[in-house]
Structures are given as C-alpha cells and as structure tokens.
Amino acid sequence: MGQVTLYMDDDTLGRMRAAAEAAGVSMSAWLAQLVRERTRTDWPRDVAALAGAWRSGSSAEDLRANQPPDIARETL
Predict the structure, then answer these.
(1) Is the residue at 10 inside a domain?
(2) For 21-53, what is each residue's pLDDT tens digit?
(3) Based on the structure, what is the number of domains in the chain?
(4) Would the pTM count as exceeding 0.70?
C-alpha cells in the first residue's frame, strides 16, 4: 500500500477531520473513499439500475411538432 503526504491549510484539515469523524472512519480512509468516488469510471449502481426503468421518450420530430419554426440565421 502506498503512502501520500499532503499539505493543506488548517481550515481544510479541520473540515476533513470533522467529515471523517462524522463518517466514523479515519482521515486516511475518508480521503481514499473520496478519491475512489471522484475518479470512478463506471456509473453508480443505483444509476445503472435506472436503465430501462421508463418508457422510450418521444422522437425529436414529435418534440418539435408544436414549436414555431426556427428563425433564419445570419450569414457571416
């Protein structure tokens, strides 16, 4: 297991200490979890579980059906 040395101001250190205490873990474990959360490359399980949970949406044409036409763009 690797070790990391961090330098931070007292206010930030105090906030990290309080957050770790509130979570009931060491500052090292709290920070490691934060890094894992912020660097994950997959969807959280609860988000992935939503796939297919709702019916298919309307097509782009259906969404635009009751909208006024676009205005003409200016030429450059």
Answers:
(1) yes
(2) 999 999 999 999 999 999 989 888 898 888 877
(3) 1
(4) no
